[in-house]
Design the sequence.
């Protein structure tokens, strides 16, 4: 990386304070007439390093590289109250060769969310997010720890998230899209994740997120295939997993291995304690050493026809 081509946001314990509460209040009161600004956004840029900075109280997303390449975010702290709306930590968007590592994030929305454009606009621009690495992230939020989507209309592929620690989360791992999105989510690997006090451990869903306007194409269905989750450990989990594909575009090759989520008992109905289980529909794949046992659609199999057999043989 040549120094003269680099964009650098750096310092020793410097802080950028977005003073977002005035924006959050207007948004909650529905008096806001404009889109809230993000705290730091790079567009059509390359060779970016963001390091050793604290970001706090962003009005909207904190760090948003869009249409960028060769981006490194490391040694940052990102803070916002858990009731602050849409304060995502880092959202690489239609960007390539991005590394997010060694950081602490506690916000009111997803800690890291990989995106690639929204409905018909993302489809038309057609720029995917590719080759994204997320590692050694610790944090908490009412929403997701590691997310893909829901805006994935330009496509998302080749994402690796590993060595993640999540506490007091709404969802640990959330891969999400919707009808009208089009695009694809492909070759996503999440490994070595510890989560504690999480409402839903793993959620992969095709019914998440709204639309920018009424001009989206309801027949533009996303293609979701090749999701590998390995080495996921959780304590005090509400529901271990929910996987809901689309009837006309089932999710394929969802492979779960070495997943151990200790669920908590909750009251259901009249004084009945039930152990929450996996819920699945319109998905195919396989599982190996998963507890609680996954849904039948992902029943363990080592047969040659199992779409996950190559992965399991390498364990």
Sequence:
């Amino acid at each position: 990386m040549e120094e003269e081509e680099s964009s650098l946001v750096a310092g020793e314990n410097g802080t950028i304070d977005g003073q977002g509460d005035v924006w959050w209040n207007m948004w909650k009161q529905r008096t806001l007439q404009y889109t809230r600004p993000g705290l730091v956004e790079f567009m059509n840029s390359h060779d970016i390093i963001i390091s050793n900075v604290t970001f706090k109280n962003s009005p909207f997303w904190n760090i948003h590289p869009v249409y960028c390449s060769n981006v490194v975010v490391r040694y940052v702290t990102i803070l916002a109250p858990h009731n602050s709306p849409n304060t995502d930590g880092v959202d690489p968007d239609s960007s390539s060769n991005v590394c997010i590592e060694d950081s602490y994030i506690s916000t009111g929305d997803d800690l890291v969310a990989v995106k690639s454009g929204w409905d018909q606009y993302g489809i038309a621009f057609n720029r995917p997010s590719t080759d994204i690495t997320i590692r050694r992230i610790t944090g908490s939020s009412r929403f997701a720890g590691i997310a893909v989507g829901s805006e994935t209309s330009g496509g998302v592929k080749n994402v690796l998230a590993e060595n993640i620690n999540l506490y007091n989360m709404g969802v640990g791992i959330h891969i999400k899209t919707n009808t009208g999105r089009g695009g694809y989510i492909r070759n996503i690997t999440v490994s070595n994740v510890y989560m504690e006090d999480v409402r839903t451990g793993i959620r992969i869903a095709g019914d998440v997120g709204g639309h920018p306007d009424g001009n989206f194409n309801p027949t533009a269905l996303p293609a979701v295939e090749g999701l590998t989750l390995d080495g996921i450990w959780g304590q005090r989990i509400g529901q271990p997993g929910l996987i809901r594909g689309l009837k006309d575009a089932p999710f394929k090759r969802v492979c779960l291995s070495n997943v151990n989520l200790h669920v908590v008992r909750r009251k259901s109905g009249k004084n009945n304690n039930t152990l929450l289980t996996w819920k699945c529909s319109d998905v195919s794949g396989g599982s190996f050493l998963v507890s609680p046992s996954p849904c039948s659609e992902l029943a363990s199999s080592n047969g040659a026809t199992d779409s996950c057999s190559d992965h399991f043989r390498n364990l």
